[in-house]
Amino acid sequence: MQQCRATRRFSSVGANPMAQWLEDFAKRHPERFAEASSSTPSAPVESGAALAQRAGASIMQPMDGLPTLKPARELTAPATRMTTLPNGVRVISIDTFCGVCSVGAFVDAGSRHETAANWGVGSVLEKLAFKGGASGEGGRSPVEVAALMERHGINPSTMSSREHISFQLEAQREHMPVIVDLLAETCLDPALRETDLAEARTVLDFEEQDREYMPEEIVTELIHEAAYGKTSQLGHAQLCSAQRAQEITLPLLREFSSAHFTGDNIVISAAGVDHDELVIEAEKHFGAAAAGKDPQRDEIDEGKYVGGHVFVDAAPAQMAVSSAHVHAPPAMCHVALGFESSGWSNDELVPMCVMSTLLGGGSSFSAGGPGKGMYSRLYLEVLNRHYWVESVSNIYFSHQYSYDFTLLCD
């Protein structure tokens, strides 16, 4: 019978690679299975109540050191606090009393602050975020930064826009000092290596190829050109092309960073942290930022709305499903209609946000589940009435001095 069982077990192992792997692993590491294979019966596991009773504690008595629970209406609502460092860096936070914190460094520098000589540097700097430092702690490498983030469970995200570049990190709130250190390294002491720049150029090349299949991104760029003019600071292209990325050098990146990543242009924003502790870390890591603003920023215009139209007559890109089968592109046109309004510092900001929510939008196929967005204005008045409309949405582009409200229809 034992021989029969062994033969049956060997046959099952041979048919199951995972079982074979487990058997080999047990042979290589017998110490990990010593307790499980021991013939001595293990002691029964006591419940928490039994352990407390044996220790002389009672579950009917309050434990020392635990806060008294109160209804939310009796608690003080968390307030947003702001502190300005001596060099102009603003630190803003609100404590959400949860285990996860989110900290971001927002730099008042975007594509509208670029010139013809350094156009595209914002997009490249976004791709070079969290690649290590030039001098801090001996100069961390990209591998060391990635290992540090993995060890602390840090989730990074970056974004560049027409007016801002943001670097954001999320992790357990006890890791906030590490987060601020990484943000300061990226903003004030980036390594900016040639190898990292070559990798960023490759990423931008891939993104440019992907945009051929995402016409909504192309239309978004064109609506700014139509609204403000192709040569204006808000109207010229924000996204860096692969060809332009080849022309951007490390000296251009360093010059732009030193001119715009100054104290008055940096805001440290956080949620889920203690404000006083955040200020201490910000002073420690961002206190070395140069004070003041670059004099060239006085030359920035307010983005005069000129209006107009831009038409691009081009066949949509072919998307290959496989080497033997290629889907024909849909015969569709993509239209964006924009309207001038006020900037994000205007009193119209909140009403415009409410209107944008009421308009809503979506596509003929709801990917978010049945009924998602069906009762928004654009769904009721456009998608439900005109079968030939595949999708419609509203986009709210808010800028410092002006913004345009755009309807995008496919």
Describe the structure.
By secondary structure, the protein is α+β, with helices and mostly antiparallel strands. It has 3 domains: 2-42, no CATH class; 81-299, Cytochrome Bc1 Complex, Chain A, domain 1, CATH 3.30.830; 328-409, Cytochrome Bc1 Complex, Chain A, domain 1, CATH 3.30.830.10. Helix content is 36%, strand content 17%. The protein contains 14 helices and 12 strands. The protein has helices spanning 2-15, 17-28, 34-37, 48-54, 121-127, 142-152, 176-188, 194-211, 215-228, 242-247, 250-260, 275-286, 349-359, 377-383, and strands at 81-84, 90-94, 100-107, 155-160, 165-172, 266-271, 319-320, 326-327, 335-342, 361-363, 391-398, 402-409. The strands form 3 sheets. A 6-stranded mixed sheet has the order 1-2-6-3-5-4, covered by helices on one side. Strands 9-12-11-10 form a 4-stranded antiparallel sheet, sandwiched between helices. Helix 1 (2-15) packs across helix 2 (17-28). The longest helix is centred in the middle third of the chain and has 18 residues, at 194-211.
What is the topology?
Blueprint (H helix, E strand, L loop, with lengths): L1 H14 L1 H12 L5 H4 L10 H7 L26 E4 L5 E5 L5 E8 L13 H7 L14 H11 L2 E6 L4 E8 L3 H13 L5 H18 L3 H14 L13 H6 L2 H11 L5 E6 L3 H12 L32 E2 L5 E2 L7 E8 L6 H11 L1 E3 L13 H7 L7 E8 L3 E8 L1
Parallel strand pairs: 2-6
Antiparallel strand pairs: 1-2, 3-5, 3-6, 4-5, 7-8, 9-12, 10-11, 11-12
